[in-house]
Structures are given as C-alpha cells and as structure tokens.
Amino acid sequence: HVSFLLVCLAHPFASPHLWHLLGNTEPRFLSHVWERQPLHVHHPESHFTYLLQSAELDFLINNSVSVFSESDGLLNTKDVRIVKHTRINGDIWSSAIPSSQDKSEGVDVVDLKLLHQAFRRGFTLVVNRMDVRWPSIHNLCGNLSQFFELATSANLYFTPADAQGFHAHFDEMETFIVQLEGQKEWTLYYPPVPLPRIDQKYKPTAADLPKITKTFRLSPGSMLYIPRGLIHSAHTLPHTFSMHLTVGVEPEYRIWETVFHLALDATENALLDTPLTLATHTYTTLTRRGLLHLWIRSLANRYLRLRHALACTRKLSVATLYQEYTELWPLFEAQLPLSVKCNDSTLMQWVSNPTAVDAKELAHVLAVLAQSEPASFDLKMFKDTAAEFAKTAHTRDHFVLVLTRFHTIVADEDRERNTTDHHHYTRHVTKQQSSLEALNPTQQCTQP
Q: In 10-30, which positions are buried (b, 16+ CB within 10 angstroms) versus exposed (e)?
C-alpha cells in the first residue's frame, strides 16, 4: 500500500485495480506496454484467490441465469459452453458438443450432467460474462472499465490436464489473463495482426501461423497481458488442470479513426441527425460524405496510429488530445481526394489498398449513390465537401465540438450498458443469496 501511494504521487493515472494486476509495472503500462507488447507478471500464489476458487464453481453454475436470454433464466450455450481442440480436414479447429434443446423456446440449454462428462473427456468449460455473475469479478471489471473508459468483461476457462480448448487465434480486445488455479502454457506468435478492428476477424490456419513464437507458463498468481491482434494459443500440462480468468478491455469503435469520422460529420452539421452510437459514424453513410468516410477508413488501414484506442481520455486535457489530433491531421490533409474523378477506377486508387475496403463494398456504395443522388452527386459537390472538411476540421474549435460529441456518445453507450449489466448482476446476486439462505447453517459455503 505504501508503494502504491508513492506511485500515485509520481503517476497521476495510477489505479489500485490496475496495480493489483500489474504490480510494479503499472506506472509504465500505458506509455510502454498498452497496445504494444505482452507483459508477464508474477504475484504470490494466493494473490488472486479472492476472485474465485474451483470449489465454488458448482455453486456458480447451479445459481447462474442466462445473460443472453430471459426465458426462465435457463443457461444456454452462449452462457456456458464446452470446447475442445479438434482436427478437421487436416487443420485444427475448436468444436463444441451439443446440449439439450428447450423445445418451448427453441434455444440450446446447458445440460450440467453433460458438462461433467465432457470435462472428463478433455473438453474445456467456458463460462461467459463472469463480470455479471460473481461479485468479486464484477467489481474488478467495473473498476477497470471506469479507469480505461472502455467496456470490460470477463470469461472463465476451466481446462482438464493435458488438453487444449481453442486453436491459435487473435482477439480484437486488450486481454488480461489471470491464472487462478493450476498451470497453463501459452504460446504467442509474431508478428501480430496490427491493432485489428472489431469487425476484422478470421481464423488463421496452421499454415498461416507466424514462425516466431514466445512461450509463457502461468501458475497461480500469474498475470499475462496480451495486446489485441497478437495470435496466441494455450494448453494445460499433463499433470495439472487449469482455471483462469480472461478479462477483456474492448476498444470497439473508441479509436482515433472514429474521431475523424465524427469530424467529417460535423463539417456538414450532421451530428444531430445521426443516431447516438459510435458505430454509425462510419462509411455506412451512403452519400458523397459516405465516400469520404470510405477514404478515412482506408487511411486508417494504412496508418496504425489511427487505430489506437482512445483510453482514459477524460483524464487527459483537451490540449493534450488536440495535440495528438493535429499530429494525425497531416495524414488526411496530404491525401484529400480533391482532384478525384468520379469513376470507379480512379476512386479505387485512393480508397483501395491491400487491407482496405474491398471492391465489392465500394461498388455497392457507388451503386446506391447512382440511385439515390443521380442529379446531385457530381465532381464539384464532392470536391467541395472534401475542401470544407480540409478547411474546418483541423481547427481547435471544431475539435472541441467533436470531442464533446464523442464524450456524449460514450456516456450514453456506457449508461445503457451499465444499466443492462446491473440488471443481470442483480439477478445473479438475488439467486445466489436465495440459494445460500435455503441451505442449513452447517451446509452453507462461503458467501461469494
């Protein structure tokens, strides 16, 4: 505690909850590790035992309700599932076993007997959304979400000895692996997929996997941070099971690219006409402005800095954020399509690149434009829109407007998500408390 207080004096962003995960590495985490490289931290063996113990797992599952369906509160395969590393057609995949089906609701319902049988056959038990099922994990994720200003959730993975649940893959979120019990060996593959978007998902085949690897062995008290886009796999050792928690911090659309989408919308005073969600401020606007959104997206494919997460923005001054914005602005100003000719081939020259929006998507936009604005869409109007964007979007006043709008949308999204999560968390706490009260005093387990 004294060490943490000393860090707070030197590092104003210090968070006791991040400190609990990262220990002495916390002060340099945001500036040197976040979104850049993995980090392995060792803590005492009992460091994370307060979060959950395997002896509490039966109580947790028996007293959980569905987060994904309100029908009778029955757990389904989105809540709890069993997976195993499987070879199909010469390649490795993760497969799930079937569960019984609730015919009245048409959803797969978790069969607890089947879970136990499958675990003995080498399957990994996955419990999703632990952040709304268990108080200690709920508190951890809530505090991390408040610190990062990004959505945070947690899943639990319980794997038998000498087994593997998932094939090598990457995540579109920043991940903290918290080892609760047993041991697990993790393999990281380099180079990573650089800062993938939320919609950039694919399964790398065995042939696709990079050849450079790094291995970490996690034991109780260990924490491994894996930045998004870094391909990884994990397996247990022959002599021990593993139970770990994966805490995911999700940037989603809260990246610098979105700020420029908002800045473009603000140029035409369109902010009040668009839905209050960051996901809608993208290239899906099928107007002449929509083509500029495509152009912004293509630039973000080329320049990694535009895909960095906007974390902890409320802890930063407007001046600091505006400085970074102005450093990014030359990327746009130098490549504004002011001289583009209105035909497919020349538009593709500035929209398309090896990782950008594909030709089919652009062709769809052009087709909609031809139907919706055949008279109004011409080269001059398109160039005028781009010129107006170049003239106003880089000014401080415009940025303050955009930042205010960004924070308003973020607050609305967070409020809606927190309301939903609180509802699910209350359902779980109520059921768990009722179950505890129904037990005889001599049978009661430790209250979660």
A: ebebbbebbbbbbeebbbebb
Whether 443 has a pLDDT exceeding 80, the answer reads no
* Token pair recorded at residue 247: 């805490």
Q: Where are the alpha helices (DSSP H) in 173-314?
A: 256-267, 288-302
Q: How far apart are CA 256 and CA 321, in angstroms?
A: 10
- Nearest 5°: CA angle at 305, between 300 and 310? 100
How many Å apart are CA 99 and CA 80, to the nearest integer?
Answer: 10
Question: What is the distance between the alpha carbons of residues 354 and 122, in angstroms, rounded to a whole number?
Answer: 41
Burial class (CB in 10 A: 0-12, 13-18, 19+), 301: buried
By C-alpha distance, which of 258, 287, 307 is closest to 386? 287
**421-426: Cβ within 8 A, 24+ apart:** 421/131, 421/132, 424/65, 424/67, 424/129, 424/132, 425/132, 425/133, 425/138
What's the pTM? Answer: 0.83
Q: Which residues pair with 100 in a beta bridge?
A: 109
Residue 95 CA to residue 160 CA, distance in Å, equals: 16
Tens digit of pLDDT for each residue in 205-235? 778 888 889 999 999 999 999 999 999 999 9
Sign of CA dihedral 91, 94, 97, 101: negative
Tokens of 310: 């906007």
Tens of pLDDT, residue by residue over 147-191, are 999 999 999 999 999 999 988 999 999 999 999 999 999 999 998
C-alpha torsion sign, points 7, 11, 17, 21: negative
